[in-house]
Design a protein that fits this description.
The structure is a homodimer. The first copy, chain A, is α/β, with parallel strands linked by helices. Chain A is 41% helix and 19% strand. Strand 9 of chain A pairs antiparallel with strand 9 of chain B, so a sheet runs across the interface.
Chain lengths: 321, 321
């Protein structure tokens, strides 16, 4: 690989954007490109750079998979509408839940989401669009973790069901490849994205499904979605790098109205980190931890127990699965 | 029920002991009694009162079930030997693990331990001893929780496989029934028990099996036993009411030497409480929580993640299952 990381101290956001826009224009020429916007920082920045370079020749899809935050699809489409970027909202919730049915192994769940996203939903959209260029938000941490074996190797064309041996002309473009999260946020700000987007805490690819241990059903996603809303409300002002709620599969004993109640457990994680490669636990005040426990066990039906992760990365990871 | 609680402010430990000794002497007369010593405060106090009243006419068994703390059976036998109380150590580890094999439901596991203890092991010992009197460490919190439906109703004679309809003469004696934990500790001190026994944090009836979510195997008990040792070492000086380690069945992603490692999670709980009926979370310093996580993930093979419970009782309970 001859591409290198651009370290923060050498990053000039305006210049970086100009370079990427120029490069995309040269590569795509008068062709068509597509990309999938997830609402995260990386794909939001890619969408903005892509539209600045290609305008209407870039078609952007937002795929609603049923495993996102409360109101997320509509929110993201609206944010980009204000920036004059048209995003097509594709409802594919049923396809995702059908693929996840009965799966409990984390790798199988991840694979089901990946396959449904790429091969079934996005793959179909790419082929129908006639585009031969795909914009993707791969960043430098992804590259490193793939090399290190922490993440699985990705070949996006194969994932789209496009046989790279047989089909000529498909090209993957990665406009934020040389940056890590902080750099991407700086570029996002320079692109005019609102702070709520460019400063957004990272969110995993498999969305809330990554926060459900065990089978991912509509009901269980709803539990972790409610807990996520509370955690995000309470920890918004913490200044932490990332914070999340995980629904465990293990049940624990609780008490309701003096009676034994075998219920669910939510694990809260809150991280201090610069680049997600290593991370330490945020030393939240106990008042805040107790409030989180009190709200989650009161407002989320079925949850009787809340824990707080106290393990650094490594040996932990940011997400649970 | 015409027996009433003796509140702390009315408790005179010396007088209480004298009353119980007198009562046991009157009831048992020249008969034989047996009891099972678990090493917890309640059964230790019952053993001391029983021996003071009955001497060699009380036979005390310690049943090693394989799901206890490191070195526990030998330690307890030794403590009582110093107090001139003979305790017979019965090795029944194989019987307990055989009964637990394949079980994951907490009620079924609890039932398997109860049945193995009472019907199989202790029931056999009681019958062989020829005793008709059983001393048991039931306390006032047990009574209340049984009435409230938090704990299951216990009929010890039926549990011993003794049909109370058919057999006449068996009698259960409960010398600490009218006391809660703090009162029992005061009585234990007055009886001359060492502080490490009378001030011991409570330990659940099903021992470490109550701290294993999912199947209870020798290997999984060994994991939670190691974590328990670390938690007890680190939190001994915390002044907390109780502290414990729970092995989860859910696996979470971790990292070892830069590679993905799907491993186990330990949940630590540490409680402030007077009577175990309600409890709040001990606000441990983060330095201590991080040290616990660091030690457990380093010293206990397979564990990649440690959490700390932040939910009060209620809606949580002290133990997880």
């Amino acid at each position: 690989m001859n591409v290198k990381e651009i370290p923060l101290e050498k990053l000039n956001a305006e210049q970086y954007i100009a370079d990427q826009v120029k490069s995309l224009k040269q590569t795509v020429g008068s062709g068509l490109a597509v990309n999938a916007l997830s609402g995260g920082v990386d794909s939001s920045v890619v969408t903005m750079i892509g539209h600045r370079a290609l305008g209407a020749r870039l078609k952007t899809f937002f795929i609603a998979n049923g495993i996102m935050r409360e109101g997320e699809p509509e929110y993201i489409v609206k944010v980009f509408k204000k920036l004059n970027v048209k995003v097509e909202l594709v409802h594919a919730e049923n396809e995702f839940f059908a693929a996840l049915k009965g799966l409990t192994d984390p790798e199988e769940k991840r694979e089901a989401i990946t396959q449904t996203f790429y091969k079934k939903v996005f793959g179909r959209l790419v082929k129908e669009s006639g585009a031969k260029y795909l914009l993707q938000g791969t960043n430098w941490t992804d590259v490193e973790e793939t090399v290190a074996g922490v993440k699985r190797q990705h070949n996006i064309l194969a994932q789209l069901g496009i046989d790279t041996q047989a089909v000529f002309g498909y090209k993957v473009l990665e406009p934020v490849l040389q940056l890590r999260k902080t750099g991407i946020r700086m570029v996002g700000k320079a692109l005019g994205l609102p702070e709520e987007i460019y400063a957004r805490p990272p969110f995993p690819g498999p969305a809330l499904a990554a926060r459900v241990i065990g089978e991912v059903t509509r009901e269980r996603v709803e539990v972790v979605r409610k807990a996520t809303t509370i955690v995000e409300q309470e920890l918004k002002g913490s200044g932490a790098f990332q914070y999340l709620a995980i629904l465990h599969n293990d049940k624990v004993t609780g008490m309701r109205n003096g009676k034994r109640d075998f219920g669910q457990q939510i694990e809260v994680r809150c991280w201090e980190s610069k680049d997600a490669i290593t991370a330490t636990v945020t030393r939240l005040p106990f008042e805040k931890l107790e409030k989180l426990a009190q709200r989650i066990t009161t407002e989320v039906p079925g949850v009787v127990s809340v824990t707080y992760n106290v393990t650094a990365k490594p040996p932990s990871t940011i997400e649970a699965i």
